[in-house]
Amino acid sequence: DIQMTQSPASVSASVGDRVTITCRASQSIRNWLAWYQQKPGKAPNLLIYVASSLHSGVPSRFSGSGSGTEFTLTISSLQPEDFATYFCQQTNSFPWTFGQGTRVDMK
Amino acid sequence: QVRLVQSGPEVKMPGASVKVSCKASGYTFTNYGMNWLRQAPGQGPEWVAWISGNTANTNYAQNVQGRVTVTTDTSTNTAYMELRGLRSDDTAVYYCARDKGVVPGTFDYWGQGTLVTVSS
Predict the structure, then answer these.
(1) Which pLDDT tens digits describe chain B residue by residue (120 residues)?
(2) B27 lies within 8 A of chain A by CB
(3) Is B120 on the interface with A (CB under 8 A)?
(4) Which of A50, A95, A100 sits opposite B44 (nearest CB)?
(5) By the 8 A CB rule, do A100 and A38 touch?
């Protein structure tokens, strides 16, 4: 199985800050990577797919980059509604696997 | 609009079975695959199973293979996941999630989740 490792595990930030989350795959997954946002008690929401494509309705302050084994999710200017946990997920091969999550909370 | 509505919470004894349903609306059910995932408290999601929308082909995670079966009823646009031989570590919120069309394994719509608690 492909292992996904996210860093940091948590980040404290303020509204307006630029936030970057990193995700590493245990082997090359080309650009087959998705990012999700999850708030407590809710299902995850798709943000980014194929590493850098923004899902419909997702604000443009979210962006994704990377290929191979290293990927980043960037929030250009953190908004109050962005405090949540973020997960990366490889979509290269079964079984689909997720990172352990990065919690973004208020500084 | 696309909606996935799951059945309600379940409490089961160890060794029992559970069947969770996921009723889809707002799209052509047979055109998209459906996945089942679970999430234990404080953990990331874990993919469990996939079923195609039209051929009923399936794929299962190795750690539940032999205990899980996913099916669809195209007459009611409903997907089902049955998990047998329940253990305490099966306690989790179970989600159905639709494949994003031409990008398999990317989940663009999710159900609201069904809490399955396994406890004696």
Answers:
(1) 999 999 999 999 999 999 999 999 999 999 999 999 999 998 999 999 999 988 779 999 999 999 999 999 999 999 999 999 999 999 999 999 999 887 888 999 999 999 999 999
(2) no
(3) no
(4) A100
(5) no
H or E element at residue A48 = strand A45-49
Distance from C-alpha of A53 to C-alpha of A63, rounded to nearest angstrom: 8
pLDDT tens per residue, range A29-64: 999 999 999 999 999 999 999 999 999 999 999 999
Q: Are A23 and A34 in contact (CB under 8 A)?
A: no
Q: Which residue has the tokens 């995932």?
A: B37
Output the CA angle B26-A48-B102, nearest 5 degrees: 55
Which of these, A44, A86, A17, lies nearest to B108 by C-alpha position?
A44
B24's CB contacts (< 8 A; 6+ apart) are B2, B3, B4, B34, B77, B78, B79, B98
Strands B103-110 and B3-6: unpaired
